[in-house]
Each structure stands twice: as C-alpha cells, then as structure tokens.
C-alpha cells in the first residue's frame, strides 16, 4: 500500500484587516504572537484540533466569520485578565468541558472572535 502524504502542521494563519499593522500589533502585544517574518513565531508543541462546524453555527460569533482561530494557553484566567487589562473585548463567560479543558473568548480589533483553550 502506498503511503499517504500528510501536512506537518499549520504553517500560517492570514487575516484580512482594515489596519494590518494595528491588528498585528494587537496579536503581538496582547497574545504574544511574534510578527517577524524573518523569524516566525515558534509555538509550543501540543494538540491542534481541526474541525468543521455547521454553516449556521453561532459559536464563531458573527455569521460573517468563516473561521475561528483557537490558541492554547497555559493559564486561561491569567490570559483573560491580561487581555482585559489591555482593553480587549473579552467575553464575560468561560466554559469548562470535562476531560477537554477550559475555554474563553476575545474579539480582536477587526471583529474576529478568537478562542482561548487551556487543555485539561
């Protein structure tokens, strides 16, 4: 049987923005995502979920948002506090899913809902 070629991981995530420099600075300053294309952000090893949702899901926030970025975090409460202190639009609720972890959400300056996940 012939081996099936597979992707190795996510190599980039690209967003349209009215103000790309400001959006890039927001992700860098509030979430720590490096924006140097010469030395790209090196994420820590860990699980990545790839899942399709029903076309009319409300989970992403706006119906105009076709995808949602999910970042793994070490300490959800600390990250949410950091985002609030930075003036970010943080959802008031969090969600605990036994065996999976805790979730919280923030909306970036361009209106994209971003999920934060503290794995169990």
Automatic annotation (TrEMBL):
Q: Which chain positions lie within coiled-coil regions?
A: none
Q: Which SUPFAM superfamilies match?
A: Glyoxalase/Bleomycin resistance protein/Dihydroxybiphenyl dioxygenase
Domain (VOC): residue spans on this chain = 9-119
Q: Kindly give the Pfam families that the UniProt entry links to this protein.
A: Glyoxalase_6
Highest rank taxon of the organism = Bacteria
From the Swiss-Prot or TrEMBL record, give the protein name: Glyoxalase
| Source organism | Cellulomonas pakistanensis
